[in-house]
């Protein structure tokens, strides 16, 4: 059984949701990064296994949880999935609310759906990303040419509290609680690059390596994140204003690149790091070799009087 609050060292361990196997939940919580018990926490819950497990574990961690389901209205009957989340939240004693967004068909559907989802979620909302998602993100960023910042993947913490868990473990949590996850057919559609990474590339890498590569990729992300953290600290010291051309020129190129990586994230609707080629082009603007350059999504970086300026895409150009 899970110990009573306060019985493990000096860290209070709240009880698990009623009916959950204590050993399973307590063991997984040791690898999670939830905020302190009693903290208010919004969880983005689609109804899939990962997000339902997030909800179970967040309640078990003692957070004051509100589950938010976002219906993207991209397939018939999607609105009924909110009932799955509402039922799970009620069983666990969590709050619940449902949101609907409109995502028009067209290119970059995943990115636009993500942008629409975050338009109705607080920026600090917790998501159910796992170590498997981290590995896929690292590989996707490699394919995007995102450089060291891309290799760093997602940062663990209250917004990604189950990042150290595996997908199989979230499925185990749902099974143990009698929760039947929603099966989203878009998660196997090969039109989405992440699905091909998940179902084709990762299994192939497992076969080539003769081992499970997810822990290797997750570990690589952690090492890259440590290095990026040191460079970001230097960027804070040497380039407090990343639009300042004089400071960028004076800083080591690695530090200037990291400062620009952070600055250019605002050009991406889902805050993805820019690719290394875009940063290199902006560095050419900094050096004076170019006057301006395009970056992500039709944004432009222009140098005017020793300062960089971001120009958004013209209305209707995307």
Report on the architecture of this protein.
36% of the residues are buried. Helix 2 runs parallel beside helix 3. A hairpin with a 5-residue loop joins strand 4 and strand 5. Strands 1-2-3 form a 3-stranded parallel sheet, covered by helices on one side. The chain has a 3-stranded antiparallel sheet with strand order 4-5-6, with helices on one face. It is 45% helix and 10% strand. The protein has 3 domains: 128 residues, 3-Layer(aba) Sandwich (Rossmann fold), CATH 3.40.50; 80 residues, no CATH class; 77 residues, no CATH class. The chain is mainly alpha-helical and 318 residues long.
Give the secondary structure arrangement, pairings included.
Layout: H1 22-29, E1 40-44, H2 49-60, E2 64-71, H3 81-92, E3 95-100, H4 109-118, H5 131-144, H6 147-151, H7 167-177, H8 193-209, H9 214-238, H10 245-250, H11 253-264, H12 276-287, E4 292-294, E5 300-304, E6 307-311
């Amino acid at each position: 059984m899970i110990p009573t609050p306060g019985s493990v060292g000096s860290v209070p361990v709240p009880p698990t949701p009623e009916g959950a196997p204590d050993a399973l939940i307590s063991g997984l919580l040791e690898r999670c990064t939830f905020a302190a018990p009693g903290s208010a926490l919004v969880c983005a819950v689609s109804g899939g296994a990962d997000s339902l497990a997030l909800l179970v574990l967040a309640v078990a961690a003692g957070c004051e949880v509100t589950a938010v389901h976002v219906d993207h209205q991209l397939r018939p009957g999607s609105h009924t999935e909110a009932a799955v989340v509402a039922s799970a939240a009620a069983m666990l004693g969590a709050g619940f609310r449902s949101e609907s967004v409109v995502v028009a068909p067209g290119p970059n559907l995943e990115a636009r759906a993500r942008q629409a989802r975050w338009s109705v979620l607080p920026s600090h909302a917790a998501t159910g990303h796992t170590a498997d998602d981290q590995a896929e993100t690292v590989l996707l960023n490699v394919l995007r040419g995102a450089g060291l910042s891309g290799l760093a993947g997602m940062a663990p913490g209250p917004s990604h509290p189950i990042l150290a868990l595996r997908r199989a473990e979230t499925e185990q949590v749902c099974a143990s609680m009698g929760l039947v996850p929603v099966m989203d057919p878009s998660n196997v559609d090969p039109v989405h690059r992440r699905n091909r990474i998940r179902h084709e590339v990762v299994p192939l890498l497992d076969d080539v390596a003769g081992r499970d590569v997810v822990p290797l990729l997750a570990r690589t992300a952690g090492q890259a994140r440590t290095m990026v953290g040191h460079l970001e600290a230097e960027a804070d010291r040497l380039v407090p204003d990343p639009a300042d051309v004089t400071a960028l020129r004076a800083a080591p190129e690695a530090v200037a690149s990291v400062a620009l990586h952070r600055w250019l994230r605002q050009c991406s609707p889902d805050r993805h790091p820019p690719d290394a080629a875009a940063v290199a082009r902006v560095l050419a603007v900094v050096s004076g070799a170019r006057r301006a350059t395009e970056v992500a999504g039709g944004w432009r970086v222009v140098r005017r009087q020793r300062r960089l300026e971001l120009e958004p895409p013209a209305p209707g150009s995307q």
